[in-house]
């Protein structure tokens, strides 16, 4: 059997050979189709010759040179010697109303071209103002084997890259490798998508994917010329590994998917801009994804949760035994009391309440049903943690029905660590079953989101980010990192970063702590800004209730700040450096600003407010000494209008939040 990489190399060599024949023997202007965004700024050109090639332009400048695309099915290759039957062009301008998110409505405005070929397949092209996309669609009988799919990305010039580099098929919680030029990336270096490329004129290209259902996730690999796609192959056998409770692939087959002959394949997405802040509000991946499949959604309620795991359940000064060894019914009731007094909707109970594989075998110290009952008496609902391997096709109905009958409202499902086709089916099965039993889902230890949460809005978050938990072990969760992934990973959907640390350290003083009470890098106000800037529809308060109780002004903000919004405006931003955003819920606005390790002054222009109206603004911001003492902050009240322009100083690793009524 060929290994995954040797098989892929064989296909790639054939693809490059076809490209060479095309480029040396055909007139590129002879047969081509162009699609342009509604604002005429973005353009995709598809050349229809001996093979399919696409190119991408932004504001008249070619960003992706002619690059080969194909799908290799057993017995048929889509995209080679294409015989066109029909070309259909559409313009769509509709409104999407998400169940929740950072906008009450989304404008779904795009131009579309459908190329139908004689051999039972189509290529759909879409052009939004936010980006470009294409997907293959097949109309074939029976089952098909997808041996591979190839997308080249041949970039013009030599841009820089934010490259979430990985050596395996099991990792999404990554620090980003930064390259000043793509030529500096070694051949065969692989990255998860989205990948961001930056040109000297500030043009940005993000390569991503959307609507990945029953199909493996896409990676980018550096080749001899440009980049090409790669995918985890279809598992042939799996076994338990990685701590004894994670499903690990032992062998693979020589294809990437086994699927229905009549289906849509994932979108390949190209997001282009020369204004970094637009990446913070770009919803193209959501727009391209499967519409909502759940009819009754009254039980889906995003919110904030108190949580014991990050701070090792330690409650210094509490009149109750605490720490990981004292996680029991009384301790969780203490957390519920805190949640009730601070208007938190949820308690998140992490690992340890049950047997890893048999969720009906309860830790005798933790009376789960009593905790749930007590929580409901205080208007606090409960999420429970479990490993993914506890929810197989054989067990999922049994355990989800049990948990629903107990009265819990959601599950944090952890340790998938894969995105091959079988695992993508697994995510969808869990989401579908959870909807049946009216359970919300927080996917953890998972691959990045690609839009499944639109079809299943009971999926509130995906982790797939190097989050605050890493502060227990290393230095990677730092202010610079905090200002990279909102422009890349967050394009796919909400994340489970778990902010809220009240022990804040400078870059020089920070040390990882595990076990014990960890700290984080950056100022306390930097942490608070995450509740505005980050999309997190199930937002954790990671620190000890005893710490929050010391600071009523901070706790007031954390109690009030919503997790979903009606409108979002990115006011100013630069990838890796700073971000400034305003979000509205009803008639209240929340502003958040964050910086990397550079102290800076930023101007907040309140022209997004309703004219002629005075707003009472509460500002929590870095103090003059916060660069050296990052726990220090200032809280003050002022009056602002839409004409106000306010200068705010941010310390090193700093930030601020503003609440406006």
Query: Biggest β-sheet: count, sense, barrel?
Result: 19 strands, antiparallel
Summed over residues and divided by their number, the pLDDT gives a mean of: 95
Uncertain segments: 1-29
- CATH architectural group of the largest domain: Distorted Sandwich
CATH fold annotation of the largest domain: Beta-galactosidase, Chain A, domain 5
SS summary, helix count? 11
For the secondary structure, the number of strands is: 38
* Number of spatially distinct domains: 2
User: What form results from the Cα inertia axes?
Assistant: globular
Q: Can you tell me the CATH class of the largest domain?
A: Mainly Beta
Helix content: 10-25%
* Structural class designation: alpha+beta
What Rg do the Cα atoms give? 25 Å
Into which percentage range does the β-strand content fall? 35-45%
End-to-end C-alpha gap: 65 Å
Write the layout of secondary structure elements.
Blueprint: H1 4-25, E1 32-36, E2 42-48, E3 52-58, E4 61-73, E5 76-78, E6 84-96, E7 106-117, E8 121-128, E9 131-155, E10 160-163, E11 165-166, E12 177-179, E13 190-192, E14 195-198, E15 204-210, E16 218-222, E17 227-231, E18 235-241, E19 246-252, E20 257-264, E21 267-273, H2 284-288, E22 303-307, H3 329-341, E23 346-349, H4 368-377, E24 381-387, H5 396-406, E25 410-414, H6 421-436, E26 440-443, H7 452-455, E27 459-462, H8 479-482, E28 504-505, E29 520-521, H9 524-533, E30 538-541, H10 545-548, H11 552-560, E31 567-574, E32 578-585, E33 588-595, E34 600-605, E35 615-622, E36 633-640, E37 645-650, E38 655-660
Parallel strand pairs: 22-23, 22-30, 23-24, 24-25, 25-26, 26-27, 28-29
Antiparallel strand pairs: 1-2, 2-3, 3-4, 4-5, 4-9, 6-7, 7-8, 8-9, 9-17, 9-20, 9-21, 10-12, 10-14, 11-13, 13-16, 14-15, 15-21, 16-17, 18-19, 31-32, 32-33, 33-38, 34-37, 35-36, 35-38
């Amino acid at each position: 059997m060929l290994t995954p990489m040797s098989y892929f190399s064989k296909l790639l060599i054939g693809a490059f050979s076809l490209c060479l024949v095309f480029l040396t023997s055909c007139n590129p202007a002879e047969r081509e189709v162009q699609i342009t965004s509604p604002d005429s700024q973005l353009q995709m050109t598809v050349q229809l010759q001996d093979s399919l090639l696409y190119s991408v332009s932004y504001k008249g400048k070619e960003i992706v040179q002619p690059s080969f695309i194909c799908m290799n099915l057993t017995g048929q290759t889509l995209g080679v010697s294409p015989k066109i039957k029909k070309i259909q062009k559409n313009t769509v301008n509709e409104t999407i109303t998400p169940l929740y998110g950072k906008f009450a409505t989304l404008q779904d405005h795009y131009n579309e071209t459908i190329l139908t070929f004689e051999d039972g397949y189509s290529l759909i092209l879409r052009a939004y103002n936010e980006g470009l996309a294409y997907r293959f669609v097949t109309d074939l009988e029976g089952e098909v084997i997808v041996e591979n799919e190839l997308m080249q990305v041949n970039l013009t010039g030599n841009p820089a890259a934010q490259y979430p580099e990985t050596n395996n098929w099991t990792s999404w919680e990554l620090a980003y490798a930064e390259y000043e030029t793509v030529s500096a990336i070694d051949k065969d270096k692989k990255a998860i998508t989205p990948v961001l490329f930056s040109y000297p004129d500030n043009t940005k290209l993000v390569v991503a994917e959307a609507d990945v259902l029953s199909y493996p996730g896409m990676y980018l690999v550096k080749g001899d010329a440009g980049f090409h796609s790669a995918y985890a192959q279809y598992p042939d056998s799996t076994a338990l590994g990685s701590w004894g409770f994670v499903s690990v692939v032992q062998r693979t087959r020589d294809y990437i998917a086994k699927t229905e002959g009549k289906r849509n394949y994932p979108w390949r997405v190209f997001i282009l801009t020369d204004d970094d802040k637009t990446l913070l509000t770009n919803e193209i991946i959501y727009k391209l994804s499967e519409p909502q499949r759940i009819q009754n959604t009254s039980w889906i309620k995003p919110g904030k949760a108190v949580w014991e795991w990050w701070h090792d359940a330690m409650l210094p000064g509490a009149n109750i035994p605490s720490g990981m060894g004292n996680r029991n019914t009384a301790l969780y009731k203490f957390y519920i009391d805190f949640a009730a007094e601070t208007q938190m909707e949820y308690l998140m109970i992490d690992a340890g309440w049950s047997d890893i594989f048999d969720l009906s075998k309860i830790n005798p110290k933790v009376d789960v049903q009593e905790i749930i009952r007590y929580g409901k008496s205080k208007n606090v609902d409960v999420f429970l943690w479990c490993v993914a391997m506890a929810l197989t096709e054989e067990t999922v109905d049994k355990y989800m029905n049990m948990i629903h009958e107990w009265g819990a409202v959601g599950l944090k499902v952890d340790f998938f660590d894969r995105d091959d086709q079988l695992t993508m089916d697994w995510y969808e099965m869990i989401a579908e079953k959870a909807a049946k039993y009216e359970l919300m889902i927080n996917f953890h230890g998972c691959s990045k989101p690609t839009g499944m949460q639109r079809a299943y809005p009971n999926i509130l978050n995906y982790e797939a980010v190097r989050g605050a938990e890493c502060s227990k072990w290393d230095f990677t969760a730092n202010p610079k990192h905090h200002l990279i992934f909102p422009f890349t990973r967050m394009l796919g959907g909400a994340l489970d970063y778990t902010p809220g640390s009240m022990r804040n350290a400078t870059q020089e003083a920070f040390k990882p702590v595990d076990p014990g009470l960890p700290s984080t890098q950056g100022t306390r106000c930097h942490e608070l800004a995450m509740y505005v800037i980050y999309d997190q529809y199930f937002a954790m308060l990671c620190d000890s209730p005893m710490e929050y109780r010391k600071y009523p002004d901070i706790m007031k903000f954390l109690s009030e700040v919503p997790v979903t919004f009606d409108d979002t405006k990115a006011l100013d931003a630069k990838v890796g450096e700073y971000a400034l955003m305003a979000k509205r819920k009803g008639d209240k606005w929340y502003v958040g600003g964050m910086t990397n390790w550079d102290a800076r002054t930023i101007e907040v222009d309140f022209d997004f407010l309703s004219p002629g109206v005075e707003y009472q603004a509460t500002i929590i911001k870095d103090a003059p000494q916060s660069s050296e003492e990052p726990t220090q902050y200032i809280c003050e009240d002022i009056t602002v209008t839409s004409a106000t322009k306010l200068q705010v100083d941010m310390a090193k690793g700093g930030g601020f939040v503003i609440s406006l009524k």
